[in-house]
Amino acid sequence: MDNSIARKAEFQLLKHRLLLRQLDEMPEVESHALVIYEAEAAASLASLTPYPFLIFPCLFEERARAAALETHHWGLLLPSSNRSRTKSIEPRSP
């Protein structure tokens, strides 16, 4: 196998391993899509550098933490705003 192909496969394996570990640690399923997106973004950015194996884990950890905080922040905001929008309208008595 070509060395370049082997390194790309190894990098993908690293990305998937760290992503699965991060998703296992996050009980909030709502945040999983955002964390997956951040893993792809971190991998893309890291692959542009001469040291993607060094850069990716740190960059992904930082971006995943920010995604978790963002999800937590929106989770705190949405329930109260949803309650105000979904108040049941009482029918008027004639």
Describe the protein.
This protein has 94 residues and is an all-alpha fold. The protein has one domain (3-83). 78% of the residues lie in helices and 0% in strands. It is built from 3 helices and no strands. It has helices at residues 3-25, 32-47, 52-85. Helix 1 packs antiparallel against helix 2 (32-47) and helix 1 packs parallel to helix 3. The radius of gyration is 20 Å and the shape is elongated. The N and C termini lie far apart (81 Å). The relative contact order is 0.12.
Q: Which SSEs are present, and which pair or pack?
A:
Layout: H1 3-25, H2 32-47, H3 52-85
Helix pairs in contact: 1-2, 1-3, 2-3
Rg over alpha carbons? 20 Å
- Shape call: elongated
Number of domains: 1
Number of helices: 3
Main sheet: strands, sense, barrel: none
Strand percentage lies at under 5%
Number of strands: 0
Fraction in helix = over 70%
Summarize the structure.
With 94 residues, the chain is an all-alpha fold.
Features:
3 helices, mainly alpha, 94 residues, single chain
